[in-house]
Amino acid sequence: MSLIYDELAEAFREHRDAFGVSVIFGATTVTAVVEDSEFSRELVEGGFAEAGNVETRALKADFTTLPIIGSPATWNDRSFRIASITAHPTSPVLIFSLRPAKR
Questions:
Q1: Res 11: pLDDT
Q2: How far is CA 103 from CA 16, 53, 58, 80, 100, in A?
Q3: What is the pTM (predicted TM-score) of this model?
């Protein structure tokens, strides 16, 4: 890989090591950076949904096999499904949009 790619991976690794949490994608557990926003919760009958969408960032290198859209993910004892994956060829980081599995 290029020097810039390696430097980006190292910068993300430092951020992940400081702020990351365990996320399980299928049978693979990785340390990822999770963005959980109160504003992403949907209004449902009786109030707001218990869990909202979550955006997760992880290093490509942490996966032996990349997860696919629709596959399960678990974070903070909550079950999700992968709604989308952003994988730029020049970036070492994958961005996963996760939706609660119960919807």
A1: 96
A2: 29, 11, 24, 9, 6
A3: 0.82
